[in-house]
Amino acid sequence: MLEPRQLRVLRAVARTGSFAAAARALGCTQQAVRRQITALENSARTPLVVRRPDAGKSGKEISLTEAGEILHGHSGRILTRLHAAEEEMAYLKGARLGRVRLVSFLSGMSELVPTALAGLRAAHPGTEVSFAEAAPPRAVEMLRGGDCDLALAFRYPKLPRDGGAPADDWDGLVAHLLLTDRLLVAVPPGHRLAEAADSGEIALAELADAPWIAGCAQCHGHLVDLCAAEGFAPRIDMVTDDHLTAIALVRAGLGVAVLPGITLTTEAEAVRLLRLEPAVHREIVALTLPEYDGLPAVRALVGELAAAAGTQSARLASLAPAPQPRG
Questions:
Q1: Which of 51, 105, 110, 174 has CB 3.0 to 4.6 Å from 293, enough for a Cys bridge?
Q2: Residue 72 and residue 145 in contact, taking contact as beta carbons nearer than 8 Å
Q3: Residue 319 burial (10 A CB sphere; 0-12, 13-18, 19+)
Q4: Can you tell me the distance from the alpha carbon of 272 to that of 195, in angstroms, rounded to the nearest whole number?
């Protein structure tokens, strides 16, 4: 008989490629991982994992057999439905509002999540919450695999030359739009464009010769696409996922950066913020599975995230100068 904990171990082994790494991810011993896999293989009556012949080169010691791949493919849906059933039954019995497992990208984690979790705790003290950092696309993988209930994620719209459709892998997921986050250009205070326009607006092409500071892989790729649409390739000198570091680098005169408004708090007062024209935005959403969308704890946390996003929307409106009428 297949057991949920065995399926979770199989998923960890598939993701990490070794018993040792799976044990670290699950917070147990390597021997415990081996026992669970052996028990699962006994239940399935077939080998599920095999040592990779290229283990030394690939960095992964273990891969799934064909039977293991089949079981792994079903395991996410099995665990998802089981978790949803457990939560609905617990709520029906009146034991608690439930529990919710949240993952978030870095800037959402710092600007939205603390306020939302504090609101959830105040409104529903008995709700259990677990929280971890994960950026898209890893956050989406965790959601589809049943490893979290709610994923705070973002996406950039594709450029018109790409058909104008958002690029994502959100098919089949429920997306609650929380915030439309405008991108701003951060330049050093003494930069030639720091006081370039009364409106505080610039075209990206005006920075074609500037050294750039890029962000996460998704943000990095979007910056390259934006610049390509304006006819130039950015000279990216530095890369950092941390928005405070990016602001500090800009303040030191080491480059310019396109930063999402949500990342710009009081530290951004040390740099000059300019609006891109035409405007560029990204969507921040709370993603969940259809099976989880009706769970009381998930609904409650989505509501708190929406309230936190509303507060952020008001703050974002004041970050850069409002456009002035053009004569």
A1: 174
A2: no
A3: middle
A4: 8
